[in-house]
Design goal:
Radius of gyration: 22 Å
Pfam family, one: TctC
Distance between the termini: 64 Å
Largest sheet: 10 strands, mixed
Number of strands: 10
Protein name: Tripartite-type tricarboxylate transporter, receptor component TctC
Structural class: alpha/beta
Order of helices and strands: HHEHEHEHHEHEHEHEHEEHHEH
CATH superfamily of the largest domain: Bordetella uptake gene, domain 1
Organism: Bradyrhizobium lablabi
Keywords: Signal
Number of helices: 13
Number of domains: 2
Strand content: 15-25%
Family: Belongs to the UPF0065 (bug) family.
Length: about 325
């Protein structure tokens, strides 16, 4: 009987799943990395570079799955509702990871509850750009023009609730002007309409716009960092236009559905940190005008908490609320 009991105990232990054993086997099939914006956006470009590096590192394909719409909420919901088994991740931006919770009523997921931070990949300035033929050549001139033509300036951004949307609302609030918001499903369709003159101004993540500025197809009016950026040394900051202490920085991070085994998250964190510190990773970041960050999951959690605290009063003052 004693031998039988030990045998049954051994069998039970053998068939009982454990996070450690599961993590050691991971990944044994392709892994999905959800990007909540269309292909061609700055976040998509960086996500594909990271996914390629992870595919090489782990020997299994990391597939980028673009789930665009609702300011990142469609992709955020898909990731939040996925199995917490290490085979689905969200590669996102401030909106789906931190800020949409503050703006959308009836959101299908709670970013604080349903996601566990993994790593802050990179940061990027935002740009305020205009069509080459737009009358205003600077941000102060844009404000004057908008004041003289209330509601007639069309401002495009990559989706309701995105940092571009919030930045636009904040500038209008501070300047006391009224412009028309035109939301898009990501940067790619916004750029298409900006080039064709369907919108006058875009407020969006900077990297995708740099080649267009260099080719003089569009004009950069301002950047949203506290200091001028190296890639656009002649473009003033929003602060220089009179908005004291104004700063809005885009960022890109990886989070996992809550409950994902810690060992698996640690593996991804370590691999992405290695990519950011590699010559190849640094070259990709520089090519896309991004600042690599990295660090621990705890670092990302503290950063996200700080972003919510910073933007909550801005969102409330601007009365940004969406269904």
């Amino acid at each position: 009987m004693r031998l039988l009991a030990f045998g049954l105990l051994g069998l039970a232990l053998a068939i009982t799943p454990s996070h450690r054993g599961f993590a050691q086997e991971w990944p044994n099939r392709p892994v999905t990395m959800i990007v909540p914006f269309p292909a061609g956006a700055a976040v998509d470009t960086l996500a594909r570079a990271v996914a390629h590096a992870l595919s090489e590192d782990f020997g299994k394909q990391f597939i980028v799955d673009n789930r665009a719409g609702a300011g990142g909420n469609l992709g955020g919901t898909a990731a939040a509702k996925s199995a917490a088994d290490g085979y689905t991740w969200l590669f996102g931006t401030p909106a789906p990871i931190a800020l949409n919770k503050l703006m959308y009523k009836g959101l299908a997921y709670d970013s604080e509850r349903d996601f566990t931070p993994v790593i802050l990949v990179a940061k990027s300035p935002m740009i305020i750009a205009a069509t080459s033929g737009f009358p205003a050549k600077t941000l102060p001139e844009l404000i004057v023009y908008a004041r003289q033509n209330p509601g007639k300036v069309n401002v495009g951004h990559p989706g309701n609730g995105t940092l571009g949307h919030i930045t636009s609302a904040l500038i209008q609030q501070f300047a006391g002007v009224e412009m028309t918001h035109v939301p898009y499903r990501g940067s790619a369709p916004l750029i298409t309409d900006l080039l064709s003159g369907q919108v006058d101004v875009a407020m969006d993540f900077m990297p995708t716009y740099l080649p267009l500025v260099a080719d003089r197809k569009i004009r950069a009016l301002a950047v949203t960092t506290s200091r001028r950026v190296a890639q656009l040394p002649d473009v003033p900051t929003v602060q220089e236009a009179g908005f004291r202490n104004f700063e809005a920085t885009a960022w890109y991070a990886i989070v996992a559905p809550t409950g994902t085994p810690p060992d698996i998250m640690s593996k991804v964190n370590k691999a992405v940190n290695a990519f950011l510190n590699s010559d190849k990773g640094k070259a990709i970041l520089e090519q896309n005008s991004l600042q690599g960050v990295g660090g621990s999951p705890e670092d990302l959690k503290a950063f996200i908490d700080g972003e919510r605290d910073k933007w909550r009063p801005v969102i409330e003052a601007a009365k940004i609320a969406m269904q």
